């Protein structure tokens, strides 16, 4: 017998030893990732068939899922013309007879013996007056539990060779064998505080629910458990990060920042001011900062980050400011140099384009601890670059700044303060799920003084008018982006599509007077660089680009953006893209052109962008429409696998689980209490990597 705190089931719980399974079928289960009985119980149904409507055979109506019970009156295998053997059984309940037809299952003759009592669930086919492949169950006793018919019937994911009936039967046996003994990662105190049913009961109800209410309770409890584990990870990491005593108090008195701020051509918005205060107070504290600065495109994150950096520089430290691409790193360098003009700020730029000799000299000075604001790409994190006095690392436009990268930073010196700038207004639930271990500052309001941005969705047939409009804007001295989706990640196809579009536009009669440039992912770094520079300098009027422009180039003179095959982008991505125009004082226009093959629904989705400019609202809509994995246009988001919890719908449950996780970790930061052993075990099984830092040792 397992003891109460045993967190592993005994070997007998291996799936192959389950009644009716054996080595051959065990392999099928293993294809589904099911190795133990607990794995099987965690293989939740993906849907349920409601087969609870019992009717007399005489009252069966075609087309609806209904259940009838009766005796087998007649049963026969039938050979079809194509050589297949089907099976038909006739059932009689006194009110009438019902034919049940099964394709290719002659072996059912052994099950449907004449005189046997049987329950069938299915939809009557009105043309043939029969049920095709109905769910069925032979009932021997009077009060037997039904698994396959006449109930909420679970629908599990299957694999070749494994039938729905086989799966349900295995689940039933597994529930009987171990449901009560599966270790519950949710501590008893949490179950009590949040009025959650015990695990065993929830597992039984999620697979074979008695009714909708109990199914709902089971779903809630198991979803809570998923979110609770995730929030425990976040809390443990937060704790661990805070308790690392190796941070620096790294802010000077602020004179340098004030001097630069006084020279800015604008005043900070209240949001910017607030964020800056939060960041600087973190810099002053001796524990390491891990903060996210969240704000829409153009909300003014760069200035805030720069002013924070100046506090650290003033105290004599090194600051690294990292962008995801060369182009952006260079652009940041230029912007920051401009903002700092007139003040003595030690700036250094270190990118792939930095000449080798210069790079070596600079690296030597940095290695010697020279105070500087170093601008570069994420390559700054490489081992080669030594920053012994690094106090603050600013990471721009990176959605996931992983534990590994933080660890790399930590090796460079003491743990520096980390500020992540994110241009996507992430919905609150996702912030909690992905960044629950970070502090968050938000920039809501956009700085005033921008021109209006109008967004229109229009069909491909209007392309001539779009070009007309473009030509007029260009004639006024303005610039335009034409954006295409990346069709195959980094592939040749992308390059070819972009080149074709570039050719089409460059040879267009209305655009002869203007210069166009092409920018796509397959170009060499210096060619990308050149295209961007020419466009930024106004020597090129139209930039035809794949979504590389997404990440933050600033060309205030650009007033038109045309996005082709627009339905291929997520709403959030499009919102970020259009943020590239409307940066200057003039009115700007964003034209979204869905591809001719796009569905009406896809077009409709795009209209959301015509109606609102609120990035948070758009992100919420995206989350609802496309799910979290799609939100960034990449599935590689490092999102935990949630089977039941839904980040678009379960916000309240997420809040609850967060409070519960906080309470547990507050009391037992290393999960050493006996009562938390199953929790710790479950966390290490599911989240080993993210927890390495938090629970190491
Ligand atoms: P983000 O990085 O958040 O997309 P930026 O920091 O690039 O935004 O700012 C966008 C533009 O707005 C820049 O040209 C910047 O100088 C300007 N800006 C920033 N803050 C303000 C402000 N408070 N008032 C007016 N303009 C601002
Ligand atoms: Mg920016």
Number of helices: 22
Overall residue-averaged pLDDT value: 85
Q: What structural class do helix, strand and pairing data support? A: alpha/beta
The multimeric state of the shown protein is single chain
The number of distinct β-strands equals 21
Strand content: 15-25%
Helix content: 25-40%
Give the strand line-up of the largest sheet: 11-12-10-13-14-9-15
Q: Which descriptor suits the 3D outline? A: globular
> Largest sheet, described in full?
7 strands, parallel
How many angstroms does the end-to-end distance come to? 31 Å
- pLDDT < 50 runs, ≥5 residues: 1-7, 399-404, 630-638
Attached small molecules:
adenosine-5'-diphosphate, magnesium ion
What's the gyration radius in Å? 31 Å
Q: What would you note in describing this structure?
A:
Helix 6 crosses helix 22 (about 690-695) and helix 7 runs antiparallel to helix 9. It contains 22 helices and 21 strands. Helix 17 (about 570-580) links the parallel strand 20 (about 560-565) and strand 21 (about 590-595). It is about 40% helix and about 20% strand. The chain starts with about 20 loop residues before the first helix and ends with a helix. The chain is of the alpha/beta class and about 700 residues long. Adenosine-5'-diphosphate binds next to helix 9. Magnesium ion (MG) binds near residues 301, 302, 396 and 552.
